[in-house]
Specification:
Helices cover 79% and strands 0% of the residues. With 66 residues, it is mainly alpha-helical. The longest helix has 31 residues, at 35-65. The protein is elongated, with a radius of gyration of 15 Å. 9% of the residues are buried. The structure holds zinc ion.
């Protein structure tokens, strides 16, 4: 499901915790009343979990190489 266009970038930053506190409060207020952006954010968080799982073995190898 696509988010509201004006919130898309903020949602991506929010999923990486790269968003300022004031903006995140603003965004959370929108999320509480917008089903579309909520489901988009759920999708982003799912992708972030998959990526962090894939990168963990790589990080482990880097540590062993030191
Ligand atoms: Zn929205």
């Amino acid at each position: 499901m696509n988010p509201c266009p004006r919130y898309e970038k903020a949602l991506i930053l929010y999923s990486y915790q790269e968003i300022g506190r004031r903006k995140s409060v603003f965004l959370q207020r929108h999320l509480s009343e917008c089903e579309r952006c909520r489901s988009y954010l759920n999708g982003l968080e799912e992708v972030a979990r998959i990526i962090s799982r894939q990168y963990q073995p790589q990080l482990h190898l880097d540590i062993e190489d030191l």
